[in-house]
Design a protein that fits this description.
Chains A, B: Keywords: DNA-binding, Transcription, Transcription regulation. The structure is a homodimer of 117-residue chains. Chain A has 117 residues and is of the alpha+beta class. The first copy, chain A, contains five helices and three strands. Chain A has one domain: Arc Repressor Mutant, subunit A.
Amino acid sequence: MPKQLTVLDAEVCCAPLATAAVPADAAADVAAAFKAMGDPVRLQLLSMITSAAAGEICVCDLTPAFELTGPTISHHLKVLREAGLVESDRRGTWVWYRANRSRLAALSAVLDVTPAD
Amino acid sequence: MPKQLTVLDAEVCCAPLATAAVPADAAADVAAAFKAMGDPVRLQLLSMITSAAAGEICVCDLTPAFELTGPTISHHLKVLREAGLVESDRRGTWVWYRANRSRLAALSAVLDVTPAD
DNA sequence: GTGCTGAGTTGACAGATGTCTAAGTAGGCG
DNA sequence: CGCCTACTTAGACATCTGTCAACTCAGCAC
């Protein structure tokens, strides 16, 4: 029994925060994504993955960027994966991570407040 | 000795996640904001405050929307305040909350991935 | 003043979270 | 096959977090 469902379909509903009160079920999904980004290490990992020149990046390039052990980095990557923010793919010896850009875009839209003059 | 500084000046630096790797100090600030939004109750509170018709909303209108005690709502509002996401203002008997829209806009920009084709 | 009501603070406690070490799995190479 | 490297999983542990009950503070009315 998983303590938290993996967000495979990246719901992230839609309506910007500022437009209308977010219903509870949508809030749970969006909050889960923000929670995953709520750790400095994970935010940096997500940034490194999202901004990777090749569109993806190897764990072996992520780990040495932090003064943390491999298992700890692996744990943070798992959290990002379960939040639907990144996807991973093993090719031979190495594992490559890439960002789920549509989910990032949806989250960005939720925070959008531009209509304010 | 506060365990965490209050983010008064709403740093939130600038460069979108996808543009370049976020430096550690900026990541700490942005992550703190996302962390505050990483709880479903707080996200709904933020949404109710941001979407309030009058631009602000009374705590007395927030509390009954949840099956939680007053102190718990008060705690969540404090977290949102310390993250620089909302501001409060006591007028007479009631306390009014309004959103810090510039900070929300900055966070939205951090997640922006539009340049992707 | 006393009393009432809205909101915040304090202290306590169960449960979640970040980190590590140790062990396990997957793939390449000799 | 064995061995090495890259990564993940499992357990343990200290810290942090969300919640509540009890209390305090601020403002209004009498």
